[in-house]
Write a structure and sequence with these properties.
Helices cover 45% and strands 24% of the residues. It is of the alpha/beta class and 313 residues long.
Length: 313
């Protein structure tokens, strides 16, 4: 059994098509078919059912797929460890991050990281906290940037910063004051994320502290979609303030401070406790902290008119 056979097998299983798999691994389709046939002959069973142009894993194929992926991951990690040990600074770093954090932190963070590690192939995926945890456990991600607290016996977390939530409303919605109590949310139509999202759970927890039952008129999984709906007058929402200021023009929205209590949540790094973290991963984690500090400092120093559009008091 050869390494390239495993790579070809994974490609066919992923694309469910010999032609697309061959293009992905940069070989001709006949060559790929011969290698898959040789692998099946060696194992003594079919790994794929050929259904016209589509191929699907057999039961034996599904079992083999689990171990083939694990073998390739182990080899990839072994190669990365050796390269970093030798100072080659090559390899791959796969990061999962919250969609909101992705909008304002990742661009400057990636720029700094690539200056120091130009040879590292960096992948960043915006996804919910629950997907980040599952990605870490399945070894699809090396590092996660997610909401805390997060408790899992195999995952270590490091707090990075506190993110303040604010009330975001259409520009023409009347409040008459620059701030709003959490209790005031009970009379507003709200556009929030679905109930299984961590941010939604945190918003509901803060509302419960204030004795408020949120009046949700629309649920959307995309923060950008939520802001668009708010700008069109569907209702108000609660999102991280720093995220909002990087999105739609201020003329379409007003960002109102919430208090009594001021809703906040902690964002932090997550990684598998027993998985090796090389210099590139360690540097990425350190840059998360310094980049976020610089962003927060710049936000505080910006003129008040550019930081927040408020209703007239």
């Amino acid at each position: 059994m050869e390494l390239r056979q495993l790579e070809y097998f994974i490609a066919v299983a992923t694309h469910q098509n010999f032609s697309r798999a061959a293009e992905h691994v940069h070989v001709s389709q006949p060559s790929l078919s011969i290698q898959i046939g040789g692998l099946e002959k060696e194992l003594g069973t079919r790994l794929f059912d050929r259904l016209g142009r589509k191929v699907v894993l057999t039961q034996a194929g599904e079992l083999f797929h689990v171990h083939a992926e694990r073998a390739l991951r182990e080899l990839d990690q072994a190669e990365q460890v050796v390269h970093e040990l030798l100072g080659a600074k090559r390899g791959r770093l796969v990061v999962g991050t919250l969609s909101t954090v992705n909008s304002y932190l990742i661009a400057p963070l990636v720029s700094r990281f690539k200056q120091r590690f130009p040879g590292i192939h960096l992948q960043v995926h915006a996804q919910p906290s629950s997907d980040i945890v599952s990605g870490l456990l399945a070894h699809r991600l090396d590092i996660g940037i997610c909401l805390l607290p997060l408790t899992h016996p195999q995952v270590t977390t490091v707090p990075l910063f506190e993110e303040r939530l604010a009330l975001i409303a259409p520009a023409n919605m009347k409040f008459g004051k620059p701030r709003a109590r959490m209790q005031d949310l009970g009379r507003l139509p709200l556009v929030l994320m679905p109930v299984d999202y961590c941010l939604r759970k945190m918003v509901e927890a803060e509302c419960a502290k204030a004795g408020v039952h949120p009046q949700v008129v629309l649920e959307m999984s995309s923060p950008e979609g939520i802001l668009q709906a708010v700008a069109e007058g569907t209702g108000a929402t609660i999102l991280p303030e720093l995220y909002v200021r990087t999105r739609l023009p201020a003329a379409k929205l007003q960002v109102i401070d919430l208090y009594d209590p001021t809703p906040r949540h902690t964002v932090g790094l997550a990684y598998l406790t027993k998985r090796y973290r090389g210099p590139a991963a360690e540097e990425f984690a350190a840059l998360c902290e310094t980049t976020m500090r610089d962003l927060q400092s710049a936000s505080k120093q910006a003129p008040s008119g550019t930081r927040r559009k408020r209703t007239a008091s």
